[in-house]
Amino acid sequence: MENAVNWRPYVAGALVGVLATLSVIVSTKVLGKTQYLGASTTFVRAVGFVEQAVDAEHVKKNPYFLKEKVKVDWQFMLIVGIFVGALSASVIDGSFKLEAVPPVWRERFGGGVGLRAVGAFLGGIVAMFGARLADGCPSGHGLSGLMQLSVSGFIALACFFGAGVLMAALVYRRRGGVQ
Amino acid sequence: MSDQWLGLITGICFGALLQQGRVLRFEKQVGAMLLKDMTIMKFMMSAILVGMVGVQVAVALGLAQLSPKATQIGATVVGGLLFGLGWAIMGFCPGTSVGALAEGRWHAIFAIFGMMAGAAIYAEAYPHLEKNFLALGNLGKITLPGVLGISAWAIIPMLWVVFILCFVFFEKRGL
After folding, report:
1. Which residues contact A56 (CB under 8 A, 6 or more apart)?
2. What ipTM goes with this model?
3. Across residues B56-77, what is the average pLDDT?
4. B32 and B41 Cβ atoms separated by less than 8 Å
């Protein structure tokens, strides 16, 4: 190891392990139900609220919204908390930075916000459809699934990453060959 | 009410740690998929190593219950692969998109809108999928200790060894 090891991801990650442990213990004690970290169900509830404002009857009849329940629950507030925590931490340590197009994207596709917006939107549709089908995302399946040694977590994480590696190679590597 | 407060407090800690681990950024997520920068893997694997010990101890002491997701081979694999394809282009996962927006990477808002649209489409497709696809290869809420018939305490040390070897590999290669 020539360069000094950057311990940041290891330490922050280990602390998430401590947080997840405290969270399952405290939620079981206080709420009577063990809560595991997760994120993607909240997107169902968020869009459920939007659809409710437009056509409440439709949401009431949809079996998926009935199953997941359109409400502000523990995980919904977890996501709100992620926003608050990330904003506070980035402002405090000065790493907050307004960015319209990420550097890796810019190198490949230029600095246009429109194309980045379309890519993020379409990627988001496919990813979330997949996450709901798989019943979890890298938080729910990846972190919480593996912590519980759940078989679905190992399978899902391998699929997430396998397809991600393939797609990233197709999208971001320069034409004319792999580096 | 208390479930919302507890979620909020847990989320604030989670968001601050995601931000301090520097895993919210597009280049870190795509960097891992390009096999050039393993920051998010170091972060996730460290969380799993500590969390799996904590969770299994908590469960053994009766302080928490396991709540594994069902393994539905069809849905888990197809859904997982679709997620990966979208993830590479979006550059965020559901949890990190919100944190990325919070640290000023405002293009994450398009990813968030896209994911809400994806959730809406899934809700419409659900009745059909439930009838014809979700039950395909449904093995139930299985865990490694259950399937292998060995204790979690035999599996956890093995995962520690494997993950630490991965960390050594990442650092040697400067990934």
Report:
1. none
2. 0.95
3. 96
4. yes
Partner B, chain A 20-79, Cβ-Cβ below 8 Å: 20-31, 34-37, 39-40, 42-44, 46-48, 50-51, 62-65, 67, 72-79
Q: Do B64 and A97 touch (CB under 8 A)?
A: no
Which of B27, B40, B103 is facing A95, going by the closest CB pair? Answer: B103
When CB atoms are compared, the residue of B6, B8, B54 closest to A27 is B6
| Shortest CA gap A21–chain B (Å) | 5
How many angstroms away from the CA of B161 is the closest CA of chain A?
15
Average pLDDT over residues A121-130: 98
pTM for the whole thing?
A: 0.94
CA distances from A130 to A124, B74, B84, B109 (A): 10, 12, 8, 19
Closest CA to A78 of A25, A42, A30: A42
A90–chain B Cβ distance below 8 A for any pair = yes
Subunit contact B103:A161, Cβ cutoff 8 A: no
SS (H, E, C) chain B: CHHHHHHHHHHHHHHHHHHHCCCCCHHHHHHHHCCCCCHHHHHHHHHHHHHHHHHHHHHHCCCCCCCCCCCEHHHHHHHHHHHHHHHHHHCCCHHHHHHHHHCCCCCHHHHHHHHHHHHHHHHHHHHHHHHHCCCCCECCCCEHHHHHCCCHHHHHHHHHHHHHHHHHHHHHHCC
Please answer whether residues A28 and B64 qualify as being in contact, where contact means their C-beta atoms are separated by less than 8 angstroms.
yes
> 3-state class of A150 per DSSP?
strand
